[in-house]
Amino acid sequence: MSVSARLVLLVTVLLSGCASVVALDTAVRRPAPPPLIRFGADTFAFPNESRTKNHDKPDLYANYCFVMARAVTQFHRFARFDPAAPRLSPRAYTQRVGQVTAHPPWDDPLPADRRVVIPGYASLHEFSADQEAAVKAGLPSRFWTLVHWTNWRVVFPFPGWHQERVASQVMTELQAGHLVQLLVTNFPEWELNHTRFVATRLFDTTEGSIRAFRMYYWLLL
Residues 62-79: pLDDT tens digits? Predict the structure, then answer.
């Protein structure tokens, strides 16, 4: 396939994606979906800490927001907890976490019999509370999230229609039963270049233009 043909194909795919977005005023009139995850059960027990607010804290676990938010989706789609099964060693649990997070987060959820089994625990929260060191050791490095090629989006202003489109996509995905991860920024302020799930809220931010972008929903995005 020639370079020009590839460009035409790429533009066609992108435009077809734009055309398929439901109008926001239509999306907001649809019934609210049931909760997709349970906070305190399907989330991590340990936090992604703020580096700016914990300068002198030993063993600081900071700048892992992308890794942790993405991993919640991966556990939601590719892991299964079996509290009745015998517990494993920390090393074995680290390997299981690595197996879960090796799955691309945009892949379809696996059936129960093909999921990575986490024995001895009933939920991600219980697991990560009791095996914090093993879980952290199994999570991927934060490096590639910090240099992810789509991070360039934070430096540009985006028009209102773009943010409306993101909001419509988010609502459509939630109504379809899919978790949504967002990159939220108020760049050029540095405090809010952060990722989170739609179910959380923003607070204590410096006044500025807050923009949101979808993350990890396609191979290139």
Answer: 878 889 999 999 999 999
